[in-house]
Known about the structure:
The complex is a heterodimer of chains A (289) and B (69).
Chain A: H1 2-12, E1 23-27, E2 30-33, H2 34-55, H3 64-83, H4 86-109, E3 118-123, E4 126-131, H5 140-162, H6 164-171, H7 174-183, H8 190-236, H9 242-272, H10 275-288
Antiparallel strand pairs in A: 1-2, 3-4
Helix pairs in contact in A: 2-4, 3-4, 4-9, 5-6, 5-8, 5-9, 7-8, 8-9
Chain B: H1 4-15, H2 17-36, H3 41-68
Helix pairs in contact in B: 1-3, 2-3
Amino acid sequence: MSNQSIQNNTTALKHESTLYAEPVAHIGAFPVTNALLTSTTAVIVITLLALIIRTGLREVPRGIQNFFEAILEGALSLADQVTNSRKISEKVFPLAFAVFLFVLVNNWLGLLPLGGLGVVAQGEHGAAFIPFLRSGTADINTTVALATMAVLGANLFGIFSIGIWKTFNKYVNLKALGGIFTRVRKEPMVLVVAPVTFFVGLLELIGELAKVASLSFRLFGNIFAGEVLLAAMSAIIPYLLPIPFLFLEIFVGIIQALIFSILTLVYFAIAAQDHEEHEGHRDTAAAHA
Amino acid sequence: MELIPLAKAIAIGVGAIGPGIGVGLIGAKAMEAIGRNPEAAGKVLVPMLIASAFAEAIAIYALVIAFSL
């Protein structure tokens, strides 16, 4: 009989990969999910690392400082390639690199083989095992927050660098509508072109929302799928089969962090570009051709 | 009859076709580029990985849908 109860226990304590992060504790009415726990750990890890490097800073780099200086230099030159301007990349790089570090550490923390640490909590289908570690980026809330920050930040950056009127005209193109009255006598085609331009601006507004959706779902999906993949592989052959996939997931963690931060950088760079100037260049290029 | 498992299978199965073709094309073109100019292998690698991650993301959307069904 006791054997049966143990068997019941083991089947009941299976951990299911859920789409949402599971609460491991409660502070008052506020549920502390495992993703929140891991992302807080990530912040602490990054802060500690930064402090360690900061206190040991020296003119001639050595050891860990050397390593991070090489990474920073490479990342800054990559940012230059993306933005095509040292001025913009110097402004945006700290944010993009911070996002990169946060996402990377989060992705990797979820891979740590500490799946045994956790709590047993009452879930929907009876008692369930909930691990403490779940990548913060494997929770849709984190990625949506990061993506919203990136897109809103890009638009704010655009406002600061090219002015509020030009940024506003990117989405609600009053300038094109106004052009109907001022330019109609010289070129009557503006009657057709201006409404289309206005409509394109509105589409761009929807495009901003699509940016948030694609950024957040790409990161969330990749990391969550990685966790599910590892769980599925260790269900087939425990310990042995997940090893190659662990390497794959370490790689995916870097790539996704890189993509997220590069896209953030691209959005900032696009927002800082003057739309009209850009089109003017294209016109002259077309004229030359 | 329970149709939800079938729906999940179709969602990820059909959703993986396009990205599969996409990643294949990206890889094939990258190999072609490296074959034409072997010195450019380092320069080709990073854009190739980024492009294939973009293509892969579409399969991941399908996977998320399959899991949320």
